[in-house]
Amino acid sequence: MSDNHAKMKHSIGTSNRWEMYLDNREVILEMRNITKKFPGVTANDDISFSLKKGEVLALLGENGAGKSSLMNVLVGLYRADAGSIYVNGQKVSITSPSVSSSLGIGMIHQEFMLVDTMTVAENIILGIKDLNLVPDMKAISEKISEISEQYQLKVNPSSYIWQLSVGERQRVEILKLIFRGANILILDEPTAVLTPQESKELNGIINQMKKEGKSAIFITHKMDEVMAFSEDVYVLKQGKLVASKRTSDTNPKELARMMVGREVLFQFDKGEYKPGKSVLTVKDLCAVNSKGLEALKTISFEVKSGEIFGIAGVAGNGQQQLIDSVTGLQKIRCGSVYINESDCSNKNPIDYIKAGVSYIPSDRLGMGVAGTMTVLNNLAMKGYRDKPFSSHGLLIKSYFKKFAENMIDLFRISTPGPETIVKFLSGGNIQKAILAREIDSCRNLLVAAYPSRGLDVGATQAVRTRLIEQRDEGKAVLLVSEELDELLMIADRIAVMFEGEFMGIVDSSNTDREELGLMMTGMKRDQVK
Ligand SMILES: Nc1ncnc2c1ncn2[C@@H]1O[C@H](COP(=O)(O)OP(=O)(O)OP(=O)(O)O)[C@@H](O)[C@H]1O
Ligand SMILES: [Mg+2]
Q1: Do 96 and 166 share a domain, yes or no?
Q2: What is the position in ligand 1's atom list of the atom closest to the CA of 426?
Q3: How far is the CA of 238 from the centre of ligand 1 (A)?
Q4: What is the pLDDT of residues 317-371, one digit of tens each?
Q5: Does the pLDDT of residue 451 top 60, yes or no?
Q6: Backbone φ/ψ region at 46: left (φ over 0), alpha (ψ -120 to 50), beta
Q7: 214, pLDDT greater than 80
Q8: Looking at 195, 230, 260, which one is the last position of a domain?
Q9: Centre of ligand 1 from the C-alpha of residue 185, in Å
Q10: How far is the CA of 432 from the centre of ligand 2 (A)?
C-alpha cells in the first residue's frame, strides 16, 4: 500500500468504506466486447473487463479457455475481430507489441522470449527503438541494478541467459518490462515453472509493484495464488466470460466449479498397494551436469511394478540428470540402470523406448512435440512402427484417425480436430497431447516429470487418475514433482532429492509435508525423526 492508500484507509476506517475506495480507484485499462476467432474456434467471445490502478486481476479458465489469446490481443500480437481497448480513458488501436509497450503494457509469455547467447543487459535493451547507436552499457547496467534493488529482483546484468535458472530468467523478463516503463504487467502462468520458493519471491515482487501503483493481470491455474495475489478474479470458459468476482467474495472450490462447470474432486480412488517385481533398478548411479559438475552422487533405488515412486525436491537438485539417466538421454559416469532384467546403462533413448519406457518431459514444447505436425501425427509418433498402426511396413491410416479421436476424447484435448497443427493449440492442450501419447504407449515404466504443470484443475485431476490407472495395471511410474500435495496424494513411496543425493525414501502413508519440507532443505531422514 502506498502512503496515500494507507492514509486513506486510516481516515475512512471501516473496511466497507475501504472497499468503496478500492472501487473508486481510477480505471486504467478497459477491454470492451472483444471477439477473436480462429479457424474452427472462437477463442474470445464478446469479452469485457476493466483494470484499476494498483490492482491485480486474476484470469482463470480451463486449458484452451482463451486466456492467452485475450492477452495477445491486448499486446498487439493478435488482432481482434471485434471490440475496442481503452487505456486511461482513451480509445487505442494496438496494432503491434511496440504500440502496447509505448502505452505501458508489457507481457511475460507462457514461453519465455529471451536470447540465450546474450547477456541480461543486452536482452533488456533488445528492440528498444530510441537508444543511441552505441548504447551506454554502463548507464544501462546501473539502471538495471537500481530497478533490481527496488524490486528485490536479484540478477547480474552481465550474466548470460543460458547461465540462469528458470526463476532467474523470469526475473529478467520482469526487469525488462519495468525497465521499459510498463505500468500494466501481464503474467501468463508465471509460476507454472517456478519452485515454491521462487513463487514466494514473485509474490513479493507483485506486492512491491502494487505499491508503486502498477497493475497486473495474472493468469494461473493455482487457486491458492488467485487467493493470495489478486483483488478481482475473472473466469473464462470456452471463450466466454462466465464470472467476475471480488477475490475476497469467493473461494477455491467455487472458482474450480465455475471453471470446469462441475464439482472438482480433490480425492482419488487408488487400488491397494501391491508392489511386484522391480521394473527400474538404479544402482550407485552417478552423473554430471552440462557444466561437467557432479550432479548425482551414487544414487540407488528401485521402482516396482504396481508402484508410483515419487521424487520430491526443489528443481535443480539433480532431478533432470536422474531423469535423463533413466531414459538414455545422458551418459552416466558410474553405476547401472536396469529395466526389468536388462542392463540399459548408457544405452540410447531408442533402446529405452524398446524396453517399454515412456517419458513425459518437463520441457514439453522443446522436447515433447513436433510443433509443425498435426495433433494426429504427434499422438501416433510413438506407436506408428508397430501394430495396429502399421502392418508389414504399411501404415494403417484409418487406425491413426480412430486412435487420435479416442485420445482427444479421453484426455479432453481441446482442438478443432485431429488434423490441426499442434502449435496452434493452447499451452495446456499441447501438454495433454504429450501426456496422452506417453501414457498410452507405456508398457513397463512411465517417467513423468512435473506432469500437472500448466494444467487446469480438471486436466490435473484427469492426469493423476491416469497415472494411478497405470500403477493399478501393474506398471511402474517414476513421478518427479515439486507439489508435495500431489506426491502425498498419489505416490506410494517418496524419495527427497537434495544436491544430487536422496535424503531418504519414505512411505507416503507415513510422512507429511513438514517432514518432506525439511528433507528438501538438506536434512537426512534420520535427522528429521
Ligand atoms: N494462433 C492460433 N491459431 C489457431 N488457433 C489458436 C491460436 N492461438 C490460440 N488458438 C486457439 O484458441 C483457443 C484458446 O487458446 P488460448 O491459448 O487462448 O487458451 P488458454 O486459455 O491460454 O489455455 P492454456 O491454459 O492451455 O494456456 C484454443 O482453442 C486454441 O487452440
Ligand atoms: Mg495460455
Answers
A1: yes
A2: 17
A3: 10
A4: 899 899 999 999 999 999 999 999 899 999 999 999 999 999 988 766 666 677 7
A5: yes
A6: left
A7: yes
A8: 260
A9: 20
A10: 13
